[in-house]
From TrEMBL:
SMART domains: AAA. It holds the Pfam family AAA_lid_2. Residues 37-178 form the AAA+ ATPase domain. It comes from the Bacteria. Signal peptide: none annotated. It comes from Desulfuromonas versatilis. This is ATPase AAA. InterPro entries: AAA+_ATPase (IPR003593), ATPase_AAA-3 (IPR011703), CbbQ/NirQ/NorQ/GpvN (IPR050764), ChlI/MoxR_AAA_lid (IPR041628), P-loop_NTPase (IPR027417).
Length: 313
């Protein structure tokens, strides 16, 4: 069975990765995975590696409205959600929507904002709505938050609390491009103007249909669900881990695996789909014991997944 709009979405990924965002295939694919699974993605890396360019490029080729928030220590929650302003002519307050009311919202350097402002994103990311002064406003569909985060060692950063990290379905880095690609980038300079000229390759309606196909037409068997639970349970019992993957994390893992299967043109999830997304979905949810805090969470989860027996078909 051919899943709706799968070929067009794969074409989007290949176009971005091969023409405009060379060396970023993994980040592009995981961003689309987050969109298809109804989640959000956190990009963590040092400044200057193209995180903002990636978000802008994805919004352009998918035909999505784009909003950007540059986080600073004095950023207020209303700078994200919007606020009501009194209109003298109409003798009433009028709500002015903030940048969160876009299909794709880039929250740049989220860990430079104060915790109170970070928490303003929670309802939007989880409930697809925003409440301002007692009035609830729905957010558009599709809706995707791409947040970027600087390494916590950098000056002026506030580590995201676990409850905030758990709202992101996936987390990944960008990394330096391969040397040959980076040399080409150096010679060619910034591609921001080129990105702004990109034409949409999909409509919002097609994206909504693709999301519905991932949700309703990709089957997740009981065996695969047991495999996901085995990974989650093992993360909670690992001797280096203080707190493992939450139930929300397990749900996100299942949803991301369904999106991964969709991109491979399968109407069912296989264990390889789960293994493919397990680290981006689960590693940032681990809390390591104090004596192991310097160990890479990604490596802990990667080694753990390798130890879990893969169910037979």
């Amino acid at each position: 069975m051919s899943l709706p709009h799968r070929q067009q979405i794969v074409h989007v990924i290949e176009t971005l990765a091969n023409r405009h965002l060379q060396g970023k295939i993994q980040a592009v694919k995981l961003t689309v995975t987050a969109l298809l699974s109804g989640g959000h993605i956190l990009l963590e890396d040092i400044p200057g590696l193209g995180k903002t360019t990636l978000a802008l490029a994805v919004s352009r080729v998918l035909g999505l409205s784009f909003g950007r928030v540059q986080c600073t220590s004095d950023l207020l929650p209303t700078d994200i959600t919007g606020l009501s302003i009194y209109n003298r002519d109409e003798n009433r307050f009028k709500f002015l929507p903030g940048p969160i009311f876009n299909n794709l919202v880039l929250i740049d350097e989220i860990n430079r904002a104060m915790p109170k402002t970070q928490s303003a994103l929670l309802e939007a990311m989880e409930e697809m709505r925003v409440t301002v002064e007692g009035v609830t406003y729905p957010l558009p569909d599709p809706f995707l938050v791409i947040a970027t985060q600087n390494p916590v060692e950098q000056v002026g950063t506030f580590p995201l609390p676990e409850s905030q990290l758990d709202r992101f379905s996936l987390r990944t880095g960008i990394g330096y491009p391969p040397p040959s690609v980076e040399k080409t980038i150096i010679r060619g300079g910034s591609i921001r103007e080129q990105i702004l000229q990109l034409e949409p390759l999909l409509s919002r309606e097609q994206i909504q249909q693709a999301k519905a196909a991932v949700r309703d037409q990709v089957y997740l068997s009981e065996k695969v669900a047991d495999y996901i639970f085995a990974i989650v349970a093992a993360s909670r019992e690992h001797p280096m881990v203080l707190s493992g993957i939450s139930t929300r994390g397990a749900i996100n893992l299942a949803e991301a695996a369904k999106a991964a299967a969709y991109l491979e043109d399968r109407d069912h999830v296989v264990p390889e789909d789960v293994r493919q997304v397990a680290v981006p979905v689960g590693a940032h949810r681990l809390i390591l014991r104090p004596e192991h805090e310097t160990v890479s969470k990604q490596e802990v989860l990667r080694s753990l997944v390798k130890q879990i027996p893969v169910p037979l078909a």
